[in-house]
């Protein structure tokens, strides 16, 4: 290529780059990117709700999971599988087979990702519930009402599934929903016995007007003790889980290092 050809090609590439930068700047300034992001998130959330309503995803805590990460992982897996398959120059029947295989793989990735996120959200609620129960008992002992005390507990807790659930219960009357209905919805979303006991105490306190602080404090102590026993059980299982990598990876390396002089001497003796 001559210098004029290089100059022409570079000018065209520079013009194309400037056009892309200008278009991107206009999209950002016009708010198209945030709107497009909201549309994509809303579409995935509606699709997840429809799937849950039809009973396709039935594992515990599925209502608490954030579906966007799972959908992105599944769609990325599907596209990567299709692109790798197309790069091999396949025929039409093989293309249909690869398409169905990629679709099944993407669906499996979405389901496993949502299930893992749901399990994480449930474990987060289990971990934060003793603190929430203790803080609520302190607020009630200070003379605050149940709704105001729950709002203060929501502010004190880190942003998690439990804070979202309690915030919805605290704001139920502002949203035009009865407290009983909000508690009933929350018990269906969170499959935890401790959380059900926690909400039953709040429900009985509002129905009967009895004091909640002592009951919440005792419930918090029992949940803390249960978490302590669960942690001890996990610590005992950790030794058994470490046995496999020790036997497969660490012990052979140690034996090889210790016995390497003897092995080298044996090879040298056999060579003679």
Highlighted features:
272 residues; mainly alpha; Receptor-associated Protein; 83% helix
Structure, described:
The chain has helices at residues 3-29, 32-53, 67-86, 92-141, 146-156, 161-170, 179-189, 193-208, 213-271. With 272 residues, it is mostly helical. The protein has a domain at 121-231: Receptor-associated Protein.
CATH class of the domain at 121-231: Mainly Alpha
Task: Please state the CA-atom Rg, rounded to the nearest Å.
Answer: 29 Å
DSSP E strands, number: 0
* CATH topology-level fold name of the domain at 121-231: Receptor-associated Protein
Largest sheet: none
The helix content is over 70%
Written as H for each helix and E for each strand, in order along the chain, the element string is HHHHHHHHH
From the N-terminal CA to the C-terminal CA, the straight-line distance is 66 Å
Low-pLDDT runs = none
Proportion of β residues? under 5%
Query: If helices are DSSP runs of H or I spanning 4 or more residues, what is the number of helices?
Result: 9
Average pLDDT taken over every residue = 79
Overall outline:
extended
Helix/sheet category? mainly alpha
CATH architecture type of the domain at 121-231? Up-down Bundle
Give a brief rundown of this model.
This protein is an all-alpha fold. The protein has nine helices and no strands. It has a domain of 111 residues: Receptor-associated Protein.
Secondary-structure map:
Elements: H1 3-29, H2 32-53, H3 67-86, H4 92-141, H5 146-156, H6 161-170, H7 179-189, H8 193-208, H9 213-271
Helix pairs in contact: 3-4, 4-5, 4-9, 5-6, 6-7, 8-9
């Amino acid at each position: 290529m001559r210098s004029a050809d290089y100059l022409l090609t570079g000018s065209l590439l520079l013009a194309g780059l400037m056009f892309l930068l200008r278009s991107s700047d206009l999209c950002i300034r016009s708010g198209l990117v945030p709107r497009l992001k909201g549309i994509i998130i809303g579409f995935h959330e509606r699709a997840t709700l429809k799937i849950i309503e039809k009973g396709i995803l039935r594992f515990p805590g599925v209502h608490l999971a954030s579906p966007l990460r799972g959908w992105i992982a599944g769609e990325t897996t599907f596209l990567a599988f299709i692109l790798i398959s197309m790069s091999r120059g396949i025929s039409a029947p093989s293309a249909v087979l690869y398409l169905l295989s990629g679709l099944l793989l993407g669906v499996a990735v979405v389901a496993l990702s949502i299930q893992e996120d749901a399990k994480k959200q449930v474990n987060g609620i289990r971990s934060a519930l003793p603190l929430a129960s203790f803080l609520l008992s302190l607020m009630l002992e200070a003379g605050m009402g149940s709704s105001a005390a729950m709002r203060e507990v929501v502010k004190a807790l880190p942003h998690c599934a439990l804070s979202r659930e309690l915030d919805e219960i605290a704001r139920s009357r502002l949203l035009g929903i009865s407290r009983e209905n909000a508690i009933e919805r929350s018990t269906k979303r969170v499959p935890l016995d401790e959380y059900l006991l926690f909400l039953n105490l709040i429900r009985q306190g509002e129905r009967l007007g009895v004091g909640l602080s002592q009951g919440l404090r005792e419930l918090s102590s029992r949940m803390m003790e249960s978490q302590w026993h669960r942690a001890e059980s996990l610590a005992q299982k950790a030794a058994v889980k470490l046995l496999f990598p020790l036997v497969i990876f660490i012990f052979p390396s140690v034996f090889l290092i210790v016995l390497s002089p003897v092995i080298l001497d044996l090879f040298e003796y056999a060579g003679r």
